[in-house]
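Data deposition worksheet. Section B asks for the primary sequence of the deposited chain exactly as it was used as input, without tags or linkers unless they were present during the calculation. Section C holds the resulting structure in token form. Section D is free text for depositor observations; keep each observation to a single sentence. Incomplete worksheets are returned to the depositor.
Section A, Depositor: J.P.
Section B:
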Amino acid sequence: YSIHILDREEKECPYAATIKTANSWDKLLEGVELDEDCAVVITTHEKEEILKHLDLSKAFYVGFLSSRAGAIKYEPNYFVPMGLDIGAENPEEIAISVAAEILKTENKKSGASISRDIRKCILVRGCGDLATAVMIRLHNAGYNVLGVDLEKPTQIRRNVSFAEAI
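Section C:
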């Protein structure tokens, strides 16, 4: 990842790959080209100027730090206001919520808590051939499956069931 800061005022940022400043949006955005690997974060109130000068349709993520949607025509890749709802209040927390939303969007994930996956666990008593078929179907449907059986299972067709593993 690289960070490029475009601003009409001089900025100092040790993490930026490029810092470009200019006194007009025309000069500032001159030569900026976006592709499908770009995430754009707009933190200025002059967002209409940026929308005039950039083709944001190619970026996979375009976030606006604004509670006012105003004249923004919504596109599928627009996030207004940007960031995940994690109760962020200070700049550092807001930056984390924005970074998390960018990663969620780039990786095409839900953004749901990982701990929620634990609730998708199903316990199956018995590991015979029918129970094995049920466990495989549940696993393919996205569930975590736990099969339990006796120490010495009594299944007849052990070679086609998880009972053989026990």
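Section D:
The chain has four helices and seven strands.
The beta strands are 4-7, 18-21, 39-42, 61-64, 78-79, 121-125, 144-148.
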